[in-house]
């Protein structure tokens, strides 16, 4: 006898968009703080600044790819991922 199928995730947990935007926003906010510390406080642009730069850029790239795949799936594109 096969095991029963698990219940579907609640809509709040099934949508990865808001957590991705919040995470990217946190990276961007940290980037702004470090940039302001450099401009107004004389702090060097060190590894933390470049880490937050990379986090912001990668977050924006990831979210844009997610949105692109979701719109392709809604359009019915054959090559789009399903279940987004």
What labels describe this entry?
mainly alpha; 0% strand
What would your notes on this structure say?
The two termini are 30 Å apart. 69% of the residues lie in helices and 0% in strands. The chain has three helices and no strands. The protein has a domain at 17-68. The chain has helices at residues 11-14, 17-41, 47-75. It is mainly alpha-helical and 84 residues long. The protein is elongated.
Give the helices and strands, then pairings.
Layout lengths: L10 H4 L2 H25 L5 H29 L9
Helix pairs in contact: 2-3
Query: Would you count the extended β strands for me?
Result: 0
Count, helices: 3
Low-confidence stretches: none
Q: Which sheet architecture does the biggest sheet show?
A: none
Query: Shape, please?
Result: elongated
Radius of gyration: 19 Å
Helix % is 55-70%
H/E element string?
HHH
Beta-strand content bin: under 5%
Structural class: mainly alpha
| Amino-to-carboxy terminus distance | 30 Å
Average pLDDT for all residues: 89
């Amino acid at each position: 006898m096969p095991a029963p199928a698990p219940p579907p995730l609640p809509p709040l947990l099934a949508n990865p968009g808001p957590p991705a935007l919040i995470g990217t926003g946190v990276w961007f906010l940290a980037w702004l703080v470090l940039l302001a510390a450099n401009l107004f406080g004389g702090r060097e642009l060190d590894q933390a600044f470049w880490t937050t730069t990379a986090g912001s850029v990668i977050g924006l790239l990831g979210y844009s790819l997610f949105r692109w795949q979701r719109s392709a799936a809604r359009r019915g594109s054959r090559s789009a991922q399903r279940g987004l």
